[in-house]
Amino acid sequence: MARICIDVRPAILARGTGIGNYTYQLMQYLAVLDEVHEYYLLWPDDGTEPLPLPPRFHFHPMTRNRQEEAEKLPSWLKAQGIELYHAPDNGLHAFPLHTCPMLVTIHDLIPFVMPETVRRGYRRNFLEKVPQVAREACCIVTVSQAAKRDIQSVLGIPEEKVRVIYPAQEAVFIPGDPERARRRLYSRYGITTPYILYSGGLNPRKNVAELIIAFAKARKYWDREIALVIPGAFSTQTEQLPLLCRALGVEDSVLFPGFVPMEDL
User: Fold this and answer.
1) Among residues 109, 127, 221, 253, which one has the fewest Cβ atoms lying within 10 Å of its Cβ?
2) What is the pLDDT of residues 40-69, one digit of tens each?
3) Is residue 263 part of a domain?
4) Residue 138 within any structural domain of the chain
5) What is the pLDDT of residue 33?
6) pLDDT digit string (tens) for 204-216?
7) Closest CA to 91 of 151, 40, 149
8) Do 120 and 209 belong to one domain?
9) Are 75 and 183 in a shared domain?
10) Does any domain span residue 170?
């Protein structure tokens, strides 16, 4: 039996984002699939109630203040006898450790390969921190072959140190009652026609503008009305999307319902 620490704070603090959902599902499925090891989970220190997981999962509140975290985390890992530490958020809250091996999930290297699409502060932190953490890690997990190639070429990490584990959809995304879904769509969002749903971020690197252009080209070949539904809150980088729809003549077919909660997705 190993004593494993996972920083699961993104599962709460960033729920709904890719990293937040990844971490949440990792925690949930380890509880189902692994009955052997002991897990010590770094948890937000804001009073959030721990999730109902089996007794072998232990929650430990940990600050996100970087200076305090750098002082407290290594000594806490040593005191708990942790044998493996997993940082699932690109390693942005990981620190060089001498007490146990470190596993890091690096989801992508967007700040390196598409720097113009990332906020300046985040980009600076990522460029400074991730290369060091990647070198220190005993193993790097990533979510695609493309990301693995970037990790090798940009960070100079040997191929044998990088493992690709593909993500999957959450268990909630299964077919439900069609009639109930139609009533909910109409009552909450006014949607009555068949539609294509985009469920990702609205930042420029997601190519949402290209999706709208492709939709405008394809719809002329369809024999019925189909909408394109794009949930999410606008930012200064994406507030031009409705203007693009008007320029392409699809402003009545591309719907922007704003933020959509997980239960509706």
Assistant:
1) 221
2) 999 999 999 999 999 999 999 998 888 888
3) no
4) yes
5) 93
6) 788 899 999 999 9
7) 151
8) no
9) no
10) no
Residues of the chain below pLDDT 50: none
Could you give the number of structural domains in the chain?
2
Note the Cα 226 to chain centre separation in Å: 29
Distance separating alpha carbons of residues 57 and 63, to the nearest angstrom: 19
Q: Are residues 223 and 102 both part of a single domain?
A: no
How confident is the model at residue 102, as a pLDDT?
95
CA distance 76 to 82: 9
Look up tokens 């990332």; give the residue.
118
Structural domain of residue 219, as residue ranges?
178-255
CATH of the domain at 53: 3.40.50.2000
Q: Which residues are paired to 137 by β-bridges? A: none
Q: What are phi and psi of 70, to 5 degrees?
A: -65, -30
**What would the two tokens of residue 157 be?**
């990490």
Whether residue 93 sits in one domain with residue 50: yes
Structure confidence at residue 237 (pLDDT): 65
**Would you state the structure tokens that stand for residue 25, as one six-digit string?**
């599902």
